[in-house]
Amino acid sequence: MAHIERMTMADLLQPNALIDAAHTATGIADFDNNTWREGFDVLVADVNAHIDNFSEGGLARVQNDIVHYLKGRLKVSEYLRQHPELLDRPIEKPVFVMGVPRTGTTLMSNLLAADPARRSPLTWEIDDPVPPVSSPAMLTQDPRAVSRLAAEKAALEANPAMGKYYRGSAVYPNECVFFMAHDFKTLMIESKGVLPAYKEFIFSCDMTSAYEYHKKFLQVLQHHAGGVWNVKKPSHSLWLDTILKIYPDARIVWTHRDPFTATGSLMSIISLSHMGHMGRIDAEWLASDYPWQAAEHANRIMDFRDRHGEDRIIDVHYANIVNDPVGETKKLYAKLGDEWTAEAEAGIRKWVDDNPQDKFGRHEYKLAQYGVTKESLEPMFERYLSRYDVAREG
Questions:
Q1: HSE-CB for 238 with a 13 A CA cutoff
Q2: What is the pLDDT of residues 20-64, one digit of tens each?
Q3: Are 119 and 226 in contact (CB under 8 A)?
Q4: Would you say 62 and 54 are in contact if contact means Cβ atoms under 8 Å apart?
Q5: Which is nearest to 243 in space by CA: 313, 181, 169?
Q6: 3-state DSSP call for residue 275?
Q7: SS3 for 99?
Q8: 3-state class (DSSP) for residue 394
């Protein structure tokens, strides 16, 4: 294990310098409000408290990400000042795909997005939302999309194995975590290292401001290219009551998968983030943090159902989606009350043909890599597995 030299005080994140950098880069003076400051301050303080955990390159990535989130917030704020009428345009009956991490939320989201009548926040436009596209056709033809596709192709050619970890593309939908980061309230940020204070904050804070910003972001993106929104991130599971406060007519889809397989996959994915930010894997932190997180996702959904009834959420099983992606998506449309059209079926079939399972190789991992056993996880998921008939994967 490589030794990481202790950082000096000069290496500590400087809050004002980060904020000033965003203002300077964008030329925009004002945010829409200061709700982002709460999570920002917790994050900066926690990174500084654990500064010696980060590699030099990893700390630079954290700094760059923070400035990127601030720049995104400033750009969205300015666009809405120029186009305040967008705040009056509704987000009608959006579909939220969520569940325990690594249970097929990405696959389900991609299948829905292949219907031309639907609208999803795409990877490239999440990263560069302003100005929003001038027409639906530009979602794949905008120079920003074309540029990102070229960069993505080069990156995959250089490292084909990366494709097996996440089924993504510049013109595929991506997780809401990356724009909710503009409010600094997103579980994704916690994965950048060992950040216990930020973890405690994100699992206990009021997420109202983050979902209010979530809605603003979608209102910007739909300025010239609307549709029925479908959005996804596993951790939507944690805040269902808040979602329904902001989106009262939201439709919620829960993906189910063997939780032992999903937990192993989650720890494997987070280990890549550890390597990128710390230059090492903290297996003890992975084993103590992420099985609990996985179980908490399931528990909070079940708690929500105990309060609001089973019918408020639609269940979809990963094994069924993999075995019959078109048929299962058609069944989901019926449960959503949406029309299944020839255009939807053609788009979804094309996506399935273009993205066979394990296209870039199989993502392989074992619980034992992180000092975890199936037996140690069983009590954490007993409530979930006693309530849902989930196909086991080994």
A1: 24
A2: 999 999 999 999 999 999 999 999 999 999 999 999 999 999 999
A3: yes
A4: yes
A5: 313
A6: helix
A7: strand
A8: coil
List, in sequence order, every residue forming a beta bridge with 251; answer none if it has no partner.
95
Q: For CA atoms 162, 172, 145, 64, give the dihedral sign.
A: negative
Structure tokens of 254? Answer: 């829960």
Residue corresponding to tokens 């929003």:
132
The one-letter code for the residue type at 217 is: F
Both tokens assigned to 378: 């069983």
Burial class of 250 by CB neighbour count within 10 A (0 to 12, 13 to 18, 19+): buried
104 exposed, middle or buried (CB, 10 Å; 0-12, 13-18, 19+)?
A: buried
Radius of gyration for the chain, computed over Cα atoms and rounded to the nearest angstrom: 21
Domains delineated in the chain: 9-387 (3.40.50.300)
Q: What is the pLDDT of residues 228-281, one digit of tens each?
A: 999 999 999 999 999 999 999 999 999 999 999 999 999 999 999 999 999 999
The pTM of the full predicted model, rounded to 2 decimals, is: 0.92
Query: Cβ contacts of residue 157 below 8 Å, gap of 6+?
Result: none
Left if phi > 0, otherwise alpha if psi is -120 to 50, otherwise beta: which for 229? Answer: beta
Q: What rounded mean pLDDT belongs to the chain?
A: 92
- Alpha-carbon distance of 232 to 98, in angstroms, equals 6
Q: What are phi and psi of 98, to 5 degrees?
A: -155, 180
Give dist(CA 246, CA 214) in Å, integer.
9
336: left (phi over 0), alpha (psi -120 to 50) or beta: alpha
Task: Kindly write down the DSSP assignment for every residue of 314-355, as one continuous string.
Answer: EEEEHHHHHH-HHHHHHHHHHHHT----HHHHHHHHHHHHHS
Q: Is the dihedral of CA 240, 244, 246, 249 positive or negative?
A: positive
Closest CA to 328 of 33, 93, 104: 104
Query: Which residue's structure tokens are 């944690």?
Result: 238
Q: Do 99 and 254 meet the contact criterion of CB atoms below 8 Å apart?
A: yes
Instruction: Give, as one character, the DSSP assignment of residue 228.
Output: E
